[in-house]
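Hi W.,

Here's what went into the run:
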Amino acid sequence: MAEATETRGRGRPRVPVLDKAGITAAAMAELRRGGLRGLTMRSLAARLGVTPGAIYNHAASRATVLAWVQEQVSDQLNVSAFGAMSLRDALAQWAWSYLRYLRARPELVELIVAVPVAHTARTSRMYQTIVDAFRAAGWYDRSVLPSLSALETFIFGAALDSAGPENVYEPSHDGRSSHDERSLHDTHAAFAGLVLEAGASERDIVFQLGLDALLTGLQMRWGGRSP
Amino acid sequence: MAEATETRGRGRPRVPVLDKAGITAAAMAELRRGGLRGLTMRSLAARLGVTPGAIYNHAASRATVLAWVQEQVSDQLNVSAFGAMSLRDALAQWAWSYLRYLRARPELVELIVAVPVAHTARTSRMYQTIVDAFRAAGWYDRSVLPSLSALETFIFGAALDSAGPENVYEPSHDGRSSHDERSLHDTHAAFAGLVLEAGASERDIVFQLGLDALLTGLQMRWGGRSP
DNA sequence: ACCTGAACACCGTTCAAGT
DNA sequence: ACCTGAACACCGTTCAAGT
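Here's what came out:
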């Protein structure tokens, strides 16, 4: 890639320069550098060594390119645990892998909001695997999708939080806390203690707690008594 | 406001035309029409009857204007139930009011992602009220903020879902479902039956179920046995 | 079919000039 | 202090011309 930038002529190249896979890979690279607003059709074209207009021979719009990136994201989710361990453990492992993947790529969270998760053949297969595990564990058919959906809702919320700042609940920044803020201050200090004991981040503790609570609550509502 | 558009001279107006309240109100109006990308500094200026540059005498950037809108959103959340009913019922009512508010204004969901919820004096007061209710219900200090945080995570996730399309789990679109998709199809049909019985939307059922499960699970983990 | 070059209709932001 | 007018450095997208 050193001096490869000999300029192309004006006409159609003898062999096509662009394709979906190359555009998608370049788009992910641009997202890593610069986030969603750093991914412009011009920066993408520059990385690909073409002019912006060339991309429109392959993608109808910028949104199309973003959807291609989305597809790749869905393909990365790990469902290998289903069938290999208890439903509860498999769900927890899947949820954590989902969250970790999104946390490592906060730009993808913006992306999911901008271009909601598409229904593709591959995501359908992922759901299929999970649904089968619910049924094998004895859950009623009608309880499966709402339970899975509630879980996914929580995961998305956690990913969204991860894109924001830490310490949302921290009391006033002006030295002494006012009288009204006493209990907020106390509970925050107690939470900080918990964080220290556990040796995890606030966010991880909140996620683990919420995940456990959600799984427990769903199990009590639908899945019988056994943990 | 009919023919009020007499052109202003070039210099400083004798009485200021803009202020924070007016800019914020105009920004919310632009968000309702056209969403986040419909709110441009030029459209905002046009609505306010000024040139784009004038806004920069009051707001440092477009992001500042978005943060002002955020502040207003936080002020609308209803915490009146805390103290007036059981903690669980009050939390459920607060969660629903939060979700309904965001659902009625999907453009604000984009906004929350673009400009994460800021820590203001007013949001601090809201948390204060809720924290007091947890304590009054006998929860340990260290359990309060992680529980509240997990709940808020779920609500944000639900709001994010609401901005997306319906029927994410619907099986293949090509008439007959393939063998592999059988259980996805069956569970979807069963869920559809549940939706009909309940007379609510898929989303409402998922939210209600997740909320109940989360509250139940948190209560079992931290809040003792009594519902 | 698939690229370049040039254009169109936009952006956010800055800043001198004017009162 | 607070506006206008004009500019700067960008956008996404379209399309004729070229091979």
